[in-house]
Design brief:
Layout: E1 4-9, H1 14-25, E2 30-35, H2 37-46, H3 52-64, E3 67-72, H4 78-82, H5 85-88, E4 92-94, H6 97-104, E5 110-115, H7 121-132, E6 138-143, H8 147-152, H9 156-168, E7 175-178, E8 196-197, H10 200-211
Parallel strand pairs: 1-2, 1-3, 3-4, 5-6, 5-7, 7-8
Helix pairs in contact: 1-10, 6-7
Length: 212
């Protein structure tokens, strides 16, 4: 039987997304959502390491309440969250790692990363490089101008349309990576023939296995 999977979010917008994915793909998996919007704000201001202690405390509380694994859905603080695994004694996964592994394994390694938040680019690039290892990878980035302001304003449709339009402008790539979990539904709005990868579904699948 699966245990309880704790999800660490920096936006409440992620909660229904992962609830729907659980219902579709992993019925019976118990989810516990930890939402702290301040973590992202502080990580943007002072760097992800600045919130390391707070993340460890949050996750330790989740473990004490029965979590058997943790999934961090925020790319900006994903590496810091992962680093807490040893102290917690349970798996801690970042939602974008399976997507990154898939991306660098495709074609000739030409990857375009789309992000709505500049702070997400460095952690995502580091993750892609880690997953690529010795394989050659040509990784480029695109910051989707104006998208994050729409997300923060609650204009989900406007946000996703800007992301989709940015994806459709990409040429000469084997794969497009949506750096943030909040971008996932833009995939259904694109017309590009280039594969567009998002993180929530593969990330939750990996975490569901870890929670068993």
């Amino acid at each position: 039987m699966p245990g309880t999977l704790a999800l660490l979010h920096t936006s409440p917008a992620h909660v229904p997304v992962f609830e729907a994915l659980r219902d579709a793909d992993h019925p019976g998996l118990a989810l516990r959502h930890l939402v702290d919007e301040d973590l992202l704000a502080r990580a943007r201001d002072a760097g992800p390491e600045a919130v390391q202690g707070e993340i460890q405390a949050l996750l330790a509380g989740a473990v004490a309440e029965g979590a058997s694994a943790v999934l961090c859905t925020c790319s900006t603080i994903g590496e810091v969250a992962e680093s807490a695994a040893a102290a917690l004694g349970i798996p801690v996964l970042r939602v974008d790692r399976p997507m990154a592994a898939d991306a660098v394994g495709r074609g000739r390694g030409r990857v375009v990363v789309l992000a709505a938040l500049a702070d997400t680019l460095a952690p995502t690039l580091a993750l892609l490089a880690e997953e690529a290892g010795d394989r050659a990878a040509d990784i480029r980035t695109v910051l989707v101008e104006g998208a994050w302001a729409r997300f923060e304003a609650g204009d989900r449709d406007g946000y996703l349309e800007l992301v989709a339009a940015a994806a459709d402008r990409v040429t000469d790539a084997d794969v497009i990576v949506l750096a943030q979990a909040s971008m996932a539904d833009a995939v259904t709005r694109t017309v590009t023939r280039i594969p567009v990868l998002s993180s929530p579904r593969p990330g939750l699948a990996a975490a569901a296995v870890a929670a068993h």
